[in-house]
Every structure is written in structure tokens, then in C-alpha cells.
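Hypothesis: this fold can be encoded by more than one sequence.
Test: take the C-alpha cells below, design a sequence, compare later.
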């Protein structure tokens, strides 16, 4: 926990004080408990991806909750379909009453394709909501090596994907809607190259996604690495650019890919825009749609 060092308005003198050290209730060797951790409020999730259970090295996740200042284990979660070496718990993420667990070595159905499990807590117990495997369907994708969740948006990394050669990497965006979790977009960098391992690290916050590419060579140095920032617009995360391929940001938020000659304007300012005017009255005749420069 963080304790104030004497000046409440100055965080620089705050101190972190050890509150507890947590162990699993079924401790065993080489389980690697603590490989992944997540905390939200009074809940903690800790992964032990190589714990033996119904299958060797199938993995487990331990849930803890804090009451009266003390942490206690409240649940142990395993996959509904555990397999040998799945590494369930290699990644964990908590947001509200949802937990996402990565199992990057799951062989369902291809070897090391990987998967992720979405759990929801309902009146105490955790229930499996959905198992996700991603759209690419390649062996060795390592889908689920990294996960991040923000509300109804979920991003899952598969840094072993082979789009532009072995180990290019990809990130998968899922959206929770009326029919549950659906893959909205498969994200790859514009300069994808073999061995970059894009998606090995992920951070999702609101309309922003940051994806790490730990072996990218863009900085003229071998495997120097890089990170890509994406913005969320209608239909998924996009790179912004003019519709005629000019590689500068479009002032009107055009989300078409460069070179496709799409979007509301090109680099010469030609194109059209739509706007809506009216009051907050909901009467059917109280608003108008205005088109400008449509030709």
C-alpha cells in the first residue's frame, strides 16, 4: 500500500509499504505462480501458467479479495477444456466484474495457436463467459500471450502471427455487444516485417491502444524495438491519412487508409462533409442535415 510521507500534496515523499505476500493454496514446484498479475480495487488475479491440474502444465489463475485490510484467496480458476502445456494464466487482466485469462500455448485446434477466456463474476463465483481464439487460425500464433480489457473493449496479442513472415505479430480487437464478444478488427502495423513480434506488449485505455513490437528493426539497430499508438474510430482502430495517399494527418479525421482514395477530403481539400443542426427538442422536424462541398 502507499502511505503519505508527511506532505499530502506532494506524492514524491510517499512510501510503498509491504502489506502482504500471497501464495496459492495448492502450491507446487514450477507452477510459476506470479507470472501474470492484475489488480482492480479489492480484487487481485494471479496466474500460475504451468501448474499441473487435469493436464500437465495446463495452468491456473488464483483470485484474491481484500476485506478489513486483509487479502484472502477466494477462487481458483482453470480452463473448461484444459490441455497439456496450455499455459492458462500466462496473461491476466481485470476490469470491473470481468477477468480475461490468456492461454498462449493452447492447441485448439492448431499447435500453440493460443486462446483467451473471458470470465464474469456474478454474486461471488466466477463463470466462463466466452472462449476466444482469434480469426487468423495459424499454428504458433501465441494468441493470448498478452491481454488488456477496458469496459466492452478487449485486445489480445498474438506476437507469433505470420502475416509478413514468421513472427510478424498481430493484435485482435474484440467488442462486447448484443451477441457477446465479437472480433471487430485484426490489427497489424503498416510496416509489418518478419520477426517484429508486434503485439507482445499491449495497453488499452479508452480510445487509445499501444502495441509493443520488441524485435522491430526500424531504428537502424537489430531488434531495437518500437511501439505503435492507435486511435479508435468507428469500425475499429485506424491509422489516419489523406484519402489520396498523402501521409499527413487529415484535419477532418478521415480514417481511410492511405492510397485508397476514400474519406471525406483529399490533400487538396476537395470532398464533402455533413453536419446536423437543431435544438435539443426531439420533434421530427426540429433538425436538418447540411451537406457542404459534396461535388
Amino acid at each position: 500500500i502507499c502511505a503519505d510521507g508527511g506532505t499530502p500534496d506532494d506524492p514524491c515523499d510517499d512510501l510503498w509499504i509491504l502489506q502482504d505476500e500471497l501464495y496459492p493454496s495448492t502450491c507446487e514446484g514450477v507452477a510459476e505462480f506470479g507470472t501474470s498479475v492484475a489488480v482492480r480495487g479489492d480484487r487481485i488475479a494471479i496466474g500460475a501458467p504451468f501448474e499441473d491440474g487435469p493436464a500437465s502444465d495446463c495452468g491456473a489463475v488464483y483470485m484474491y479479495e481484500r476485506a478489513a485490510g486483509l487479502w484472502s484467496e477466494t477462487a481458483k480458476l482453470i480452463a473448461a477444456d484444459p490441455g497439456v502445456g496450455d499455459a492458462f494464466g500466462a496473461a491476466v487482466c481485470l476490469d470491473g466484474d470481468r477477468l480475461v485469462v490468456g492461454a498462449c500455448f493452447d492447441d485448439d485446434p492448431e499447435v500453440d495457436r493460443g486462446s483467451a477466456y473471458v470470465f464474469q463474476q456474478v454474486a461471488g463465483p466466477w463463470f466462463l463467459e466466452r472462449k476466444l481464439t482469434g480469426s487468423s487460425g495459424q499454428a504458433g500464433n501465441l494468441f493470448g500471450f498478452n491481454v488488456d480489457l477496458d469496459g466492452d473493449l478487449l485486445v489480445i496479442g498474438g506476437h507469433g502471427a505470420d502475416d509478413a513472415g514468421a513472427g510478424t505479430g498481430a493484435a485482435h480487437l474484440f467488442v462486447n455487444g448484443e451477441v457477446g464478444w465479437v472480433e471487430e478488427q485484426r490489427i497489424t502495423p503498416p510496416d509489418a516485417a518478419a520477426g517484429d513480434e508486434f503485439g507482445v506488449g499491449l495497453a488499452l485505455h479508452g480510445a487509445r491502444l499501444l502495441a509493443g513490437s520488441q524485435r522491430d528493426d526500424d531504428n537502424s539497430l537489430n531488434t531495437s524495438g518500437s511501439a505503435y499508438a492507435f486511435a479508435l474510430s468507428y469500425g475499429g482502430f485506424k491509422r489516419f491519412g489523406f484519402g489520396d495517399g498523402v501521409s499527413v494527418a487529415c484535419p477532418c479525421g478521415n480514417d481511410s487508409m492511405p492510397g485508397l482514395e476514400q474519406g471525406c477530403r483529399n490533400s487538396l481539400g476537395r470532398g464533402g462533409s455533413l453536419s446536423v443542426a437543431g435544438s435539443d427538442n426531439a420533434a421530427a422536424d426540429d433538425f436538418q442535415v447540411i451537406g457542404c462541398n459534396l461535388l
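DSSP finds no helices and 20 strands in the chain. The radius of gyration is 23 Å.
Hypothesis status: open.
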